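User: quick one, fold this
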Amino acid sequence: MKIFVTGATGFIGGHFINVVPNEIEVFAPIRSKSKPKIKLNRNVNWIHKELDCINSNDLKQINTIVHFASPGVSPQKASWEELYYWNVDCTLKLLRSAAESGVGKVIIAGSYIEYGLSANTYKYIPPTAALLPISSYASSKAAAFELAHAFCIDAKISLVYNRIFSAFGEGQYYGNFWPSLKKAAMDDKDFDMTSGEQIRDFIPVEEVALSFLKDLKSINSIDFTPRVKNVCSGKGISILEFASYWWGIWNAKSKLIPGKIPSRKDEPIRFVGKL
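Assistant:
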């Protein structure tokens, strides 16, 4: 089997690469100055191109595409135009190239924030919940999902769309909650945070990677009906409880300071997925 992985140098993409068996050949685009966020423990056939330059010739003999690449993941910022181009337009370009080269399956990484205000309706959000995004990034990912869903049915490509909940772990962007928390603990500094009352569905990045691996090995859909899943623990925990747990694991001597940072007023209090 030969697979093509976008975002292979990124946080989740890198962890996925590391669980892919060596008998599977991995191909991946890489930008000129890009370096993997974590150490990769297997061979990758790097294609030195930007994602938007990938064409059907790059996908010859590829069985499955695993699409992680996406700008603007919180707390990183990107403009509406950038998000539309990279998350929607480039996803369409990639899918067109996949169809032209005969790729049989595409697995796409989505995000729980696509559900947006639907989170206020469910204790455990099902994959069938309406998409009511409230941010530019979430809107672009929801648009990419709708596009991929329709395109893959039309092109007869087996699609698996995974909405990832609050993944955390080594190699994560330093501005995210878990790495920021860890840095404060290691530096023996107090950690300013919101009230921490928000309930989130935290999942170790290693478990996310294994979930994608399971999808990679699964049999393609016979009728090309897209499969939409939540990649989550199915368990909710307050941000403060989560922070306190890790504070103890790291034996931090400094203090958590809940309430120092105001919470977003438009943010649903609970985001927990249904398995």
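User: anything notable?
Assistant: The first strand starts at residue 2 and ends at 6.
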